[in-house]
Amino acid sequence: MKKEFLEAGKIINTFGIRGELKVQPWSDRVDFLKQFKIIYISGQPVRVVSVRVHQQNALLTLEDVTDMDSALPYKNKIIEVRRADIKNKPGEHFVADLIGLEARDADNGEVFGKVSDVLSYPAQDLYEVKGGGKTYLIPDVPDFVKEINEAEGFISFHVLEGMGQ
User: Fold this and answer.
1) pTM of the entire structure?
2) For the chain, which end, N or C, has fewer CB atoms within 10 Å of the first or last residue's CB respectively?
3) What CA–CA distance (Å, rounded) separates 9 from 24?
4) Are 6 and 92 contacting, i.e. CB atoms less than 8 angstroms apart?
5) How far are the Cα atoms of 25, 26, 103 from residue 148, in angstroms, in the given order?
6) Beta pairing, strands 102-105 & 111-119
């Protein structure tokens, strides 16, 4: 069952004297949080006044947070968003939904493990797959990822000899 709320980032610090919060976004897009009017912190809904991008972080202004003193209690808190509020493009997937999917060999359909993590690197993401005492790191590129089927619970990969550790 898919979670109603997804973690979207971490408040890593305050920013300036007007109560802005510096957020490390957990998304491919730094501006991901701009689409939300309401976010959730510690399970409580919080109204977003503004979001702007600063380097690789998002700067959030929240309702009733107007200075550094009122912003400090939010430091190190995790931001969550409602799945129903997210506007995904076709073919986009949440990492939370990919973890735990069966990893199948695209050539013969054999299950060789489960996706245990999706690691983010500048060139491309890597799927970490564990199974049979091995760990596979598979690049998220069309040559290796043949099908992502969340409904049936699998990802099929083209695996080369020697990919497992």
Assistant:
1) 0.72
2) N
3) 5
4) no
5) 24, 21, 10
6) antiparallel
Contact 80, 40 (CB under 8 A): yes
Cα 144 versus chain centre, distance = 21
Lowest mean pLDDT among 42-46, 72-76, 85-89, 95-99: 85-89
Length of the chain, please? 165
Residue where the block lists tokens 């503004």: 50
Residue type, position 57, single letter: N
| Spatial contact of 59 and 15, defined as CB atoms under 8 Å apart | yes
Q: Are strands 102-105 and 5-15 parallel, antiparallel or unpaired?
A: unpaired
**Exposure string (b/e) for 84-96, b if CB count within 10 Å is 16 or more?**
eeeeeeeeeebbe
Q: What type of residue sits at position 43?
A: G
Q: Which residues contact 44 (CB under 8 A, 6 or more apart)?
A: none
Task: Collapse the DSSP code of 124 into the 3-class scheme (helix H, G, I; strand E, B; otherwise coil) and give the result.
Answer: coil
Q: Which residues pair with 118 in a beta bridge?
A: 127
Dist CA 101 CA 150 (whole Å): 7
